[in-house]
Design brief:
Helices cover 39% and strands 20% of the residues. The protein is an alpha/beta fold.
């Protein structure tokens, strides 16, 4: 019996010695899993591409557990298609394009894009039309018989440019419209194989800068046809392109513009969209300093032409209450 008790005591002692060191060891806390958010931007040479890189960098610095992956795309229309299909989580587009798609009125894809939700109205984006230096083009009427780049397929520029040409009675074959990339358009305007190019860029695009520095001249978009266009499409607004945007121009250029828009998937996590919206506003100061979103109207940011995502709506409600 004594021997059995000694063996039992020894067993308990060994167990306690093994147990307490194990208790002293701390299990390292697991790092929160990084969330990948796919942001559809635009084509290289357009305005949405650099905007996407800057916004992704700013949000990434403020949200260490979120990895913003930018996706090069054809532009505003293709971004809507990617979000609708679930291939992108966020995307840049324009208010007119988003409204048309949400209501199933896209010519090439006439079904309601019901998975789209709004995050923020960004800022008014002027529509630029520039002509090669030696072309006698002073207004839209002078585009008759000319070769004009309307932007790449899938871009908001292509959709908007065709609406403008139609409003001025310049449908093909009166105008030889070509859907080419912005970079190719700038190159061809400079070498004379194109007469003019459209570019709807939220900030001065690389292709537009290259074309104008090479001598291309801005052409105003104005007149009674613009008034008719705005009655049919109230998203268009009269605006001017500041003289500083064109290095060889002495005056501002009258044109029309449309609001840029940040959208997301309807089923994107509400807490994630809330934080993305909040940090977008936090980063506005650094973005405006870099020349991006410097003209964003904070009071108009919730006024998206499609329903707001619940996460973004929550942020705007809290922001209003905090005033």
């Amino acid at each position: 019996m004594k021997r059995a008790l000694r063996q039992a005591a020894l067993f308990v002692t060994v167990a306690l010695v093994a147990f307490f060191p194990a208790c002293e060891r701390t299990v390292p806390a697991e790092k929160p899993a990084r969330v990948v958010v796919r942001l559809a931007t635009g084509p290289r040479g357009g305005g949405f591409f650099p905007l996407g890189e800057q916004v992704a960098g700013a949000l990434g610095a403020l949200m260490p557990n979120v990895d913003i992956k930018t996706i090069v795309s054809s532009g505003a229309v293709s971004n809507l298609e990617s979000v609708q299909r679930g291939e992108a989580d966020l995307g840049f587009t324009f208010s007119d394009v988003a409204y048309i798609a949400f209501n199933g009125q896209l010519d090439d894809n006439p079904v309601p894009f019901d998975r789209l939700r709004g995050v923020a109205v960004l800022q008014l984006t002027p529509i630029s039309l520039v002509a090669r230096a030696d072309a006698p083009i002073r207004g839209l009427a002078d585009l008759r018989g000319r070769r004009v780049a309307v932007g790449p397929l899938g871009s908001g520029t292509a959709l908007t440019a065709n609406l403008i040409l139609h409003a001025f009675g310049l449908d093909p074959p009166i105008v030889h419209a070509e859907t080419v990339s912005f970079q190719d358009a700038a190159t061809r305007v400079l070498n004379g194989t194109l007469d003019a190019m459209f570019d709807n860029a939220i900030s001065q695009s690389d292709s537009l800068r290259r074309a104008t520095e090479g001598g291309a001249r801005p052409v105003p978009i104005e007149g009674p046809a613009v008034d008719r266009l705005r009655r049919d499409y109230p998203f268009f607004k009269v605006t001017v392109i500041p003289r500083e945007m064109y290095p060889r121009t002495l005056t501002a250029v009258h044109t029309i513009g449309v609001d840029g828009l940040l959208i997301c998937r309807r089923d994107l996590d509400q807490a994630l969209v809330y934080e993305l919206t909040k940090q977008l506003f936090t980063s506005l100061q650094s973005l405006s300093t870099s020349g991006t979103l410097g003209l964003m109207d904070l009071d108009q940011a919730p006024a998206t032409p499609i329903p707001l995502h619940d996460g973004a709506a929550r942020y705007y409600r809290e922001r209003e209450l905090a005033r």
